Amino acid sequence: GNTAQSLAWAAQLEGIPCTVVVPEAAPRAKTDAALAYGAEVVRFGASHVQSWEKGYQLIAERGLTLVHPYDDEMVIAGHGTIGLEILEDLPEVGAVLVPIGGGAISTGIALAIKSVRPDVRVIGVEPALATKMSQALAAGHPIEIPPSTTIADGLRAPHVGAINLELAQRYLDGVVQVSDDAITCAVGLLLQRAKLMVEPSGAATVGALLEGVVDLPPDTITVAVLSGGNMDRAKLVDFLTAAKPANHPR
């Protein structure tokens, strides 16, 4: 979603045609934004794996250039600017929580922060229903997981990238898993209390804090990266009804 929109915007700025391939069930909020920036959006397949196959087919047929959403050094470096901004805005930060999909945001931020402040802990957060980074770290190589049903659709990548795994091994201080229930609660809490509309993928970091799966000293100044706000409006009431954030014990 975020990658598709940013690529579509950059392509429009440069006058370059852009084609985005997404699964058929991709949230309308994400694809509508890419369309608004002038991209061609191709919906194909029931999973990311099938949409990837379609993407490679179009590359071969049309002679397109692939911009990988996460296993790409330039894309990772771009996400790293988030880490530099965190250090600039909050020099006293002690820990940063980053969501893990394919691995670009998490490893880009970790690389940037650790290069400047190796004492800051950077912890990855992935859905309990999509633990591809944890499995890859344990195996020492990317592991393809079955299609995930997590509500955090932006974190459903079938595997992490090879570059991302190498960086995670070097720069992430750990990876935790968060339940969909906690993510749902986080979406509602952020909307109700912070007045922020954050999609489930972006709210995973707050969900991890609510669920208590992050082990940090109580006085640690912690940043939770909220990586997306592409929410289908029709689902907002469902999240608020299910989450009941005002009653959450934390």
Sheet-strand content, in percent, reads: 5-15%
Total helical elements: 10
CATH A-level architecture of the largest domain? 3-Layer(aba) Sandwich
Distance between the termini: 30 Å
Overall SS class: alpha/beta
Order of strands side by side in the largest beta sheet? 5-4-3-6
Overall pLDDT confidence = 92
What is the number of E strands?
Answer: 6
User: What is the CATH C-level name of the largest domain?
Assistant: Alpha Beta
- The SSE string, one letter per element, is HEHEHHEHEHHEHHEH
Q: Identify low-pLDDT runs.
A: 245-250
CATH topology assignment of the largest domain: Rossmann fold
What is the rounded Rg?
18 Å
Largest sheet: 4 strands, parallel
Report on this model:
The structure is a single chain. Helix content is 47%, strand content 11%. The chain has helices at residues 2-14, 28-36, 48-62, 73-89, 104-116, 132-139, 162-171, 180-192, 200-211, 236-243; strands at residues 19-22, 40-43, 95-99, 121-127, 174-178, 222-224. The protein has 250 residues and is α/β, with parallel strands linked by helices. The model is unreliable at 245-250 (pLDDT under 50). It is built from ten helices and six strands. It has a four-stranded parallel beta sheet. A two-stranded parallel sheet has the order 1-2. It folds into two domains: 2-62, Rossmann fold; 73-247, Rossmann fold (3-Layer(aba) Sandwich).
